[in-house]
Every structure is written in structure tokens, then in C-alpha cells.
Amino acid sequence: MKTMTCKQLGGACDKGFHGNTFEEIAEQSKQHAMEMHQQQDKAHLKAMADMSELMQDSAAMKQWFTSKKKQFDSLPDK
Length: 78
Hints:
The chain is mainly alpha-helical.
């Protein structure tokens, strides 16, 4: 099992997400983002706006995803 934080995934806090695959962690991050959106957390809303801008460029988004997946793959299992 590996851990990545909200900040490592482009978010705004140190909440940890745990999973055996990057996809598991990404899903937890997505759920967390929805919760923070509902709470109108300003720091997370800014991070979401930045991510939304990144998503407008498919090549940049693919590069971001690949780099985060590599980061996940390089983490030690705990």
C-alpha cells in the first residue's frame, strides 16, 4: 500500500490517500475534492481552478497524469 497527499496530487492540504494502485488514490482524491467543494474551502477551490485550467490542454493533462503516476510508482510500499 502506498500513500500520497492531497498536495502531492495538486490539492491544498496534507490529507493522505492510501491505495495499492494510483487509480485507488486518484478516486479518494476526487471524493475529497468533492467534499471540499461542498464546504467551499477556499484553498481547495483555488487548487481545483488550477486543475480545471490544466485540463483544458489534453497534452499538459496527460503529462501531469504520467508524472503523478511515476511519482506513485516510485513510492515505497508500506
